[in-house]
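Give me structure tokens for this 361-residue protein.
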Amino acid sequence: MSQTQFQTLPQYVMEQDALGGSAADYLRLRGSNLLARTEDYFRWSDARRQSGFWPYSNAIEATPDREMRVANDAGVAVSGLNFASQDYLSLSSHPKIRAAVQEALNVYGPHSAGSPMLQGNTKVSLELEGLIADTLQMKHVVLFPTGWAAGYGSIRALVRRNDHVITDALAHNCLSEGMMFATRNIHRVRHLDMDAVADKLRQIRRQDYTNGILVVTEGLFSMDADSPDIVYLQELCDLHDATLLVDIAHDFGSLGPGGTGAIGIQKMLGNVDLVMGSFSKTFASNGGFLATDSRAVKEYVKAYSASHIFSNALSPLQANVVKTALEIVRSAEGDQLRAQLLDAIQHLRTSLAQYGIDCFG
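Here you go.
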């Protein structure tokens, strides 16, 4: 542990309204001028900003680490323990990751220079597709520029206006946005309520046996740190001719045998209809993917997912970083890093409990 001297924020004068209200209060805008009607939100947020109560839009000054120096969006820099960065196994600072960036830069340059539907793919991005498929025991993978694009784009490509989506109430924003723009037939069920999913499947199939049903969940819900019964969900989907999509953004790489997450823990590798994930949590890069056993599904998503077609492909630097990170995740070193992560988590939970602070999950 370095001997960082932690700095406290300067003393602020708390404005009267700085702690009141919510961003939700400004979601529905009123007024004919699209620009002027944002002023109320700015006044509210700036009151918090000027009072030192605005934790958003910070900028780091070095590689994410246990202790960090960051600057807030007012330019005030502070140092302290880092609980904000998404770098679960600390691979951003791994020497093999740094070497992977230089290697790809020397061979390909920094830019993919095109959509993956045209000429944006590289040899290393195709190798990454194969490595993800092998890790998850799936046959085909589609890459996306971000995890958000993967969730949104996959649902938008596959779900049509008369189809149904049954979703956990806490599903990620990218999944919710994708389904909202795909169909009005959205059925939200209470978090991890398997009986509600079963009831909704039976109800839909009694009334509609001609349109598709997509069941959406996550391998590990980040805010509550819990997981669904993936085995049971897939059985329900098979019984009712529905399709299961599991988002493994948070558990892929960081949990389970070989970093295979909740799907690996529940021995469901290769047995889930659709698996979607993100690279930004464990794999030291932006990017995302959809994995499937169907070549037809892969080609359809490539052709009809706007976030895949109309975005440039992952840069070769990103692709090589993720590929190298996944190789580490699959190795004995990956097992050691996951064990260290869980030890740190358990130590923190135990310490917080001693102060009367309970943790979910």
